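Worked problem 6 (solution included).
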Amino acid sequence: MATVTRFNVTPVKGTALLHPDEVTLTQAGIPENRRFFLVDERDELFSGSTFGPLVQVRASVGEDGALTCAFPAGGVVSGPVDELGRDVVVDFYGRPVAAREVLGVFSTAFSEYVGTAVRLMRAERDGDGVDVHPLTVVGAESVAELGRRGGYDGDLDSLRFRINIELGGTEPFEEDGWDGRSLGIGDAVIRLDGQIPRCVVTTQDPATGIHDWNTLKQIAAFRPQMARRQGIPFGMYAQVVRPGTIRLGAGVALLDI
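Solution. The predicted structure is:
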C-alpha cells in the first residue's frame, strides 16, 4: 500500500524545503507554501532557476506570523510581514499573480546574498505562489529508478524535484497511471492532473543549488516528451477535491470519485 513518506514546503519560493509531520490542504493546496517569493528590478520572478544557492537559505514562519530567514554565512533576519508596500502583478510562467512588496529588512538581506537587487513579495492569495497547480506528487521509487537508469553514483535525492507530497510503496512511475484519478489521503481527497514538465532546478544539488547532474537529459533518455504539456515529465500535478489534514505515514487509497 502506498503511504506518505515526506512533505516538502517552504514559505519563500526557491529557499530550503521544510518537512512538517503534517499538512492541511485547502482548495489552494498547502496555504503556507510559497506564500512569499522574490522579484528582480523589472518585477520578474527571481527563484532557484535564476540563482540556485537560494536553496541554502532556510526560511520559516513562527507561531506569531513572523518570518525568519537564516543565510548560510550565519546571518539571520527576522520580523513581521504585515507591513506591505506597492501592488505588483508578476508573471508566473504565463499566469498573472497579484502580490505586494514586504517592507522591512528582507529585501536588503536577500539582495546582499544573491548579489543583485531583489524584493520580497507576498502573494495576495494563498496558493498563487505555485508554478501551475496547487500540489505536486511523486513516488520515491520513481526517483530511485531514475537514479538507476542514469547511473547516478549513490542515492538520488528526491529533494531536487521539490515535490510537495512524496509516496513510498509504489512501483516506479506508478503515479503516472493515476492521472485523472482521485486519491484519498488522511482526511483529504486529491485528484492527479497531469505530468509535471521539469526545469533546470532539477539539475542542481538540492543542498547547495549548484549544478551537479544532468537530470533532464537522463529523464529524456527513457521517458517520452509530454503530449498534454510541453516538456520533460517527472512527477504529477494534483488538485484538492476535499480539504483535510494529511500526516506522515497516511495510507493512499485510489477512489472512484
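Discussion: The domain at 3-28+133-255 is CATH 2.40.33.20 (M1 Pyruvate Kinase; Domain 3).
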